[in-house]
TrEMBL record:
InterPro entries: DUF1836. It comes from the Bacteria. It comes from Peptoclostridium litorale DSM 5388. This is DUF1836 domain-containing protein. PANTHER family: DUF1836 DOMAIN-CONTAINING PROTEIN (PTHR40056:SF1), HYPOTHETICAL CYTOSOLIC PROTEIN (PTHR40056).
């Protein structure tokens, strides 16, 4: 497999697509509107079409766990939506207990957002900026590591080209898992040491 084919797969992941602050409705929405909006806007991140991005049950659980402020008159504000989006990304790696520990000191009192240490909109804007920077670094890192993998498997004969390609892809997956594991462990250690 060529490096440009790996780059194409990386681009297909839609990691650079974001729900910008300006895209989030600044009016209060009912739960069905919230789930519909987020599900529609994050549909490119789904592994398959049957996967649900956000459900009513998830929202209710986040509220019960104290990760999300209770709705006002069954309606969710822009702050609710921002927090749900952040939880969506955090949940890909962290447990709900870790997410609660991480969010609690930043949001202080979950019943209001007026006394937040850093305003939720600022946190979300910084998150989007860091996410974009990480994606650019990610693309470059994958390309460099894939080239190293290809160089290490170069000695396989031409007759075994199909096996060589599978070996390169296998090693690429193993490298990605190792990197994801290291990142996850570091995030957990930071939460354990400074947030619990």
């Amino acid at each position: 497999m060529k490096t440009d084919e790996i780059n194409k797969v990386v681009d297909e992941m839609s990691l650079s697509e974001n729900i910008e602050l300006a895209d989030i409705p600044d009016i209060e929405l009912y739960m069905e509107q919230v789930t519909g909006f987020i599900d529609d806007r994050l549909k490119n991140l789904k592994r398959d079409s049957s996967e649900k991005t956000l459900t009513k049950t998830m929202i209710n659980n986040y509220t019960k766990l104290g990760i999300l402020m209770p709705p006002k008159n069954k309606k969710y504000s822009k702050d609710h939506m921002i927090l749900m989006l952040l939880v969506y990304y955090l949940k890909q790696v962290l447990s709900l207990d870790d997410i609660k520990a991480l969010i609690a000191p930043i949001l202080n009192d979950m019943s209001t957002t007026e006394d937040d240490v850093i305003p939720l909109e600022d946190i979300y804007s910084i998150f989007l900026e860091l996410k974009s920077l990480e994606f650019e670094d990610f693309k470059q890192d994958i390309e460099e590591k894939y080239n190293v993998i290809r160089a290490k498997t170069n000695e396989v004969s031409q007759e075994e080209a199909d096996i060589k390609e599978k070996a390169e892809l296998f090693l690429t997956v193993i490298m990605l898992i190792a990197k994801a594991h290291a990142n996850k462990r570091l995030a957990e250690k930071i939460i354990d040491k400074f947030f619990k």
